[in-house]
Amino acid sequence: MNPYPGLRPFQQNEANLFMGREVIQGSLPTRVRISSLTLLVARSGVGKSSFLICRLIPQIQKDSEILYLNEWGAAPPEALITNALSSLQGSRNGLREKPVLVLDQFEDVFKLPSPRESLWDRLAELVNLDDSAANILITMREEWLGAWGESADYLPGNIGGVVRLAPLNAKELNRAIRRPPEVEGSVTVDSDLADVLIRDLRRPTAFGLGDGYVEPGLLQLVCHRLWLEASQSPDHRMSVALYERLGCADRISREFVWNELGPAGTQGARFTTYDRVLWAGMTRHLVVAQGIKAITDTEAMAGKLRMEDLGFAGAAVAKARLPKFDNEYLRQMPERRGEPPAALVGWISEVVAKAVQAGFIKQQHGLPGSATGQQHSTNLRNLFELSHDSLSDLFRQFSVEFESWVRGRWAKLVGVLFGGLFVLPFFVISVIHSGLVATLLEFAGFAIFLVLYLLFLIIMVLVMNYFFILIGYPIVRRLARGVVPFPPDRQKERSPWVTKLVMIARRLGFVPR
Length: 513
Known about the structure:
Layout lengths: L21 H13 L2 E6 L5 H14 L4 E4 L7 H10 L13 E4 L13 H12 L6 E7 L17 E7 L4 H15 L3 E2 L3 H9 L14 H17 L4 E2 L1 H6 L2 H14 L11 H10 L4 E3 L2 E2 L4 H7 L9 H8 L2 H8 L10 H17 L2 E3 L20 E3 L3 H45 L1 H44 L10 H4 L2 H13 L5
Parallel strand pairs: 1-4, 1-5, 2-3, 3-4, 6-7
Antiparallel strand pairs: 8-9, 10-11
Helix pairs in contact: 1-2, 3-4, 7-9, 9-15, 10-14, 11-14, 15-16
């Protein structure tokens, strides 16, 4: 079994393969047990879900019952919390420590349109009691930490400290690379591979601060491919030479995306041709800004999509995939639309489900791999987001190259049709009058002339471009110097008789007032 899960989070049965976080694993469970409220914040992509599944929740479950919530919207948040706590019925099920209520992805609460005063009142009741029903662990993205300030008047002095799950440091990353194959046992890892991987996978943060970080998901994806190749090689070694032969991290991650989306429509492919066109359009709306993913649902995505997002093949695909009314919905401006049509929402849901299977999308359906999730099946919005920030650039690159590929194939088809409709008749007439051999020689000569002429044009364009860079650029740079004149008042420059003519024309209605 491959000890690297790839883009998906670790499952509970893979806890022995999850490496890193040893320091915070030792201190955080104790803090959760002794504090009535603990806030755990982490930036997107640092591996919070895997940490919860494989480290924090199992550690707490040894002495405490866990109640887990991460889906918000089926009911007011305070009602969901109350319903979860009511299942305790005052019993600890034989465990010595107080139960722990985990409120995961709490940033989604701030996106709900309803007021939150009742939520803060309910949390204050739980936190400020000497013998509360459960201790509370709230997890959220750190970019929403400012919104947490709303709770200051309701929960003064009762937070056991804000704990930040920082990106993995170099030592933890090194351990995450080298230890899983040692646990699995069939593949060895060269000592210098970890340093090379960490160097190549380090990415700048969303705001360009610090030295950058390594996304655990992207690291697992690269190591997953390396282990597969090493397990099939004679020496069973993950080495720098193997890594370079595979094209390094950029090519490995790029091939992963292309292998999923590239063969769409062929036998055994996950995505159909229509799905691929829709996905290329959806990727434009899955990232708010560099390093900041959008959390959305199928209805909201349908409301954002426009026909222009689907590219050159969008109109043809939408006409075949959607009814006429739904097709027209994509042509309208988003602000003028009504409720999204069911057929479009259903199509987006199908593509999202396939993207979840491929590891592109992370969907909120309870904690992956955890048996402690409380399921709420009514009125839930199926929220989803990109699984990792690094994929956004790859998807956009695929979208651009896919669009170029489709247009190129269309241009080739038009060229073939042009040749068949215009060149072929002349060829037939020439064969009738001059014979086949003479016609072939004439067309061969014409083809050679055309190739030479096009080559001449290309050379001339390159030469002219070179001379423009050599001569024109210095002139343009000089023309860009100086003070830009303030635009003159055209009304003051008019002569009196011109002003009178304009006034007469306005009175007669020839010139708008």
